Amino acid sequence: MDQNNVVIVGASTAGLFAAYLLAKERIPVQLYDVHEGLGQPPRTLIVTSKLSEVLGFVPPEAILNKVNRMELISAHRHSWVALQEPDLVIERQRLIELLARKAAEEGAKIYPGFRFLGFEDEGNKLLLSLENVVQGRQYTITTNVLIGADGVLSNVAKAASRDSRETVTIAQAKVVLPNQASADSVKVWFDRERTEFFYWLIPESEARAVIGLISRNGKGVRDNLEGFLSSQGCETLEFQAAQVPLHDPLLKPSRAISNSRILLIGDAGGQVKATTVGGVVAGLRGARAAVRAIVGQAPYRRTVRGLKAELDLHSLMRAVLNRFGDRDYDRLLELLNTRTRNLLATHNRDVFKNAFFKLALTQPRLLLLVANSLLNRKASR
């Protein structure tokens, strides 16, 4: 491996994890982020137990709560899944601070307050332009490997490719945990009259929770959320929002320029599950794949192949769910019998590819539901 330094733009969870892994391999790495304070603004997230496996360690300081049950609610049905391994409720800022500390301890250089402006091809290297946002001064550095981990509006992705990425808006409110909710259970409501995706309740503790939704265009999302909170008898204690990309199977997460490479990870690479719009674990897997490509001098498209297949499946499932109506969701929950719930309990949403065909064998009527939904939607157009 050529020991020229690797440059990472973006102190996201994926970017910091890549810096940590590269520094452990004793590869010089510099990470630049536009913000002075890492992890801002704070946001509550729920991830699967796959998080600790991908990280290679348990991040206790980032974990707010563990949940063992998922309740699914449609217009006229109610079902549940008892999780074999609990989901983890985490604070994003705490996880970022932990990853930054571990990366620095391994020798990664982290420079907050620098905006990435663009790059030029120098033939045997890339010449990167950066701006110190406090001083207003511009700097140039060189590298053969640039990792873009700078989020949904990635400047690295824009500079490397003109491809556009579809995005959605996440909005959620911290609330007092409602009396009808449990600190041990996540709630998911499917209501096609009010949202194309779903509403959720994620308990942070015995006293607090976050309730939220996903919006395609962001219009009226705050009013929509407030209306749902009112229906649940809740008031907003704190509002959180973020823009998130959806995975696109056709977009490439890397680009070769002369003797240099640009790799996109995390939100910058659209490494987000389209079904649930969750990207923490997927982004960390993308970081691992990028580091494997750098250390092993392998094509990134090969090392990221397993993750891409998983995300492609979620994109296909989202395309199907977008055609569902309330009756379809009622039928879906009705079909979740003991065998299918047990299968879902043992195959979490970050490794769902392993369960997909097993579900079809366990409950063949799920395929019939999908087919009927697609045919009915086409007939109604």
Question: Helix- and strand-based class?
Answer: alpha/beta
CATH superfamily of the largest domain: FAD/NAD(P)-binding domain
Taking all Cα atoms into account, the compactness measure Rg is 21 Å
CATH architecture of the largest domain: 3-Layer(bba) Sandwich
How many beta-strand segments?
17
Q: Which shape, going by the Cα principal axes?
A: globular
The rounded distance between the terminal residues' Cα atoms is: 56 Å
The largest pleated sheet is described as:
8 strands, mixed
The number of distinct helices, counting runs of at least 4 residues, comes to 12
Poorly predicted tracts of residues: none
Order of H and E elements: EHEEHEEHEEEEEHEEEEHEEEHHHHHHH
Strand order of the largest sheet: 3-5-4-12-13-14-11-15
Look at the structure and give the mean pLDDT: 92
Named CATH topology of the largest domain:
FAD/NAD(P)-binding domain
Number of domains: 3
Q: Beta-strand level of the residues, as a percent range?
A: 25-35%
What proportion of the residues is helical, as a percent range?
25-40%
For the record, what CATH class of the largest domain applies?
Answer: Alpha Beta
Task: Determine the oligomeric state from the structure.
Answer: single chain
